[in-house]
């Protein structure tokens, strides 16, 4: 069995009693990384451990690192119990833990305090109003402007720059965001800045993240939600249906693909019909989305 244990997000004060007991249970202790304040606690108490930091230097990608960590842990646990310690808590932003779970092996999850709590304290926000939790490699359609967004794994300026450009596709460039480094530690840094300035900060590290507050900026999800409300309890009589159909046909005849207005009319009127007919029970919006998804492979081939 593998005991998968959270070290908490800050220093030894975040350690749970259960985590300390497991450290001292006589099993081999493995750490995903020794870049964590709790390592001082292990060393001061002569608790032996082995970290996997060397893999980050030897291998070309994070995926390779994580796969190798999991392979080593599984091999080590074949004939004995071992302990595997991760920053924060095992089921928050820990790819190796997800991989271990997918292997259907015997594991024991021991929770710790995640980095989310000190981040929320640092920016003074309450997650009850909606918090979207994303990695830094997400794209514009992953963002939801109606929710606060916590973006992790912003390790350096290059990642921050790419993220800044993606955010500017959705938010106004001067929308405010927080850069948080070392949340909950004495070295904690919290900087409020505009999203277009995210790459100007040059001290990102492995404990850096970006917090973007909700806004009134428009995204695709917000449009669909508003259209859904507007079409509630609405019925398309023959006159209204004909008007929408004629508008779609007319704008499609000699459509200029560089004209936002013509494309707008086709898309908007199509969605109005789709949502109302869905509510009337004639079609299923979900089934249409499912069918669109099934066609993505064919679309990819066509666009080659």
Number of domains: 3
Outline the biggest β-sheet: 5 strands, parallel
Put simply, the count of helices is 12
Structural class: alpha/beta
- Over all CA atoms, what is the radius of gyration? 25 Å
Using the coordinates above, name the CATH class of the largest domain: Alpha Beta
Q: Would you tell me which CATH topology of the largest domain applies?
A: Cobalt-precorrin-4 Transmethylase, domain 1
Question: Roughly what is the average pLDDT, rounded to an integer?
Answer: 92
Give the full name of the CATH homologous superfamily of the largest domain.
Tetrapyrrole methylase, N-terminal domain
* Shape verdict: elongated
Question: Considering DSSP H and I runs of 4 or more, what fraction of the residues is helical?
Answer: 40-55%
Helix-strand blueprint:
Layout: E1 2-6, H1 17-23, E2 28-31, H2 39-44, E3 50-51, H3 53-58, H4 62-76, E4 82-86, H5 95-102, E5 107-110, H6 116-123, E6 131-135, E7 148-152, H7 157-168, E8 176-181, E9 189-194, E10 208-212, H8 220-230, H9 238-253, H10 260-280, H11 285-294, H12 296-302
Parallel strand pairs: 1-4, 1-5, 2-3, 2-4, 6-7
Antiparallel strand pairs: 7-10, 8-9, 8-10
What keywords describe this structure?
alpha/beta; 15% strand; elongated; 304 residues; Methyltransferase, Cobalt-precorrin-4 Transmethylase, Domain 2; 42% helix; 10 strands; 5-stranded parallel beta sheet; 5-stranded mixed beta sheet; Cobalt-precorrin-4 Transmethylase, domain 1
Descriptive account of the structure:
The strands form two sheets. A five-stranded parallel beta sheet has the order 3-2-4-1-5, sandwiched between helices. It has a five-stranded mixed beta sheet with strand order 6-7-10-8-9, covered by helices on one side. The mean pLDDT is 92. By secondary structure, the protein is of the alpha/beta class. The two termini are 47 Å apart. The protein is built from twelve helices and ten strands. It is elongated and about 80 Å long. The protein has helices at residues 17-23, 39-44, 53-58, 62-76, 95-102, 116-123, 157-168, 220-230, 238-253, 260-280, 285-294, 296-302; strands at residues 2-6, 28-31, 50-51, 82-86, 107-110, 131-135, 148-152, 176-181, 189-194, 208-212. The chain has three domains: 2-113, Tetrapyrrole methylase, N-terminal domain (Cobalt-precorrin-4 Transmethylase, domain 1); 117-212, 2-Layer Sandwich (Methyltransferase, Cobalt-precorrin-4 Transmethylase, Domain 2), CATH 3.30.950; 231-302, no CATH class. It is 42% helix and 15% strand.
């Amino acid at each position: 069995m593998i005991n998968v244990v959270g070290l908490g997000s800050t220093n030894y004060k975040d350690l749970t009693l259960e985590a300390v007991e497991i450290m001292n249970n006589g099993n081999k202790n493995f750490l995903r990384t020794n870049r964590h304040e709790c390592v001082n606690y292990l060393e001061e108490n002569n608790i032996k451990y082995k970290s996997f930091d060397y893999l980050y230097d030897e291998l070309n990608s994070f995926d390779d690192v994580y796969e190798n960590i999991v392979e080593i842990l599984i091999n080590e646990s074949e004939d004995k119990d071992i302990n595997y310690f991760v920053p924060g808590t095992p089921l928050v932003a820990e790819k190796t833990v997800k991989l271990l779970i997918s292997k259907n092996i015997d594991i024991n999850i021991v929770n710790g305090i995640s980095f989310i709590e000190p981040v929320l304290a640092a920016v003074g926000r309450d997650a009850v109003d909606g918090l979207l939790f994303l990695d830094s490699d997400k794209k514009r359609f992953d963002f939801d402007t109606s929710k606060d967004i916590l973006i992790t794994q912003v390790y350096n300026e290059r990642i921050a720059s790419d993220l800044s450009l993606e955010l500017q596709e959705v938010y106004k460039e001067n929308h405010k965001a927080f850069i948080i480094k070392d949340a909950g530690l004495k070295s904690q840094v919290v900087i409020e800045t505009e999203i277009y300035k995210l790459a100007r900060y040059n001290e990102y590290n492995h404990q850096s993240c970006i917090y973007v507050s909700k806004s009134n900026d428009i995204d695709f999800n917000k449009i669909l939600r508003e259209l859904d409300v507007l079409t509630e309890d609405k019925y398309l009589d023959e006159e209204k249906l004909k008007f929408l159909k004629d508008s779609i046909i007319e704008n499609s005849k000699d459509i200029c693909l560089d004209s936002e207005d013509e494309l707008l009319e086709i898309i908007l009127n199509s969605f109005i019909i789709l949502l109302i007919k869905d509510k009337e029970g004639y079609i299923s919006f979900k089934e249409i989305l499912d069918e669109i998804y099934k066609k993505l492979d064919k679309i990819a081939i066509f666009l080659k």
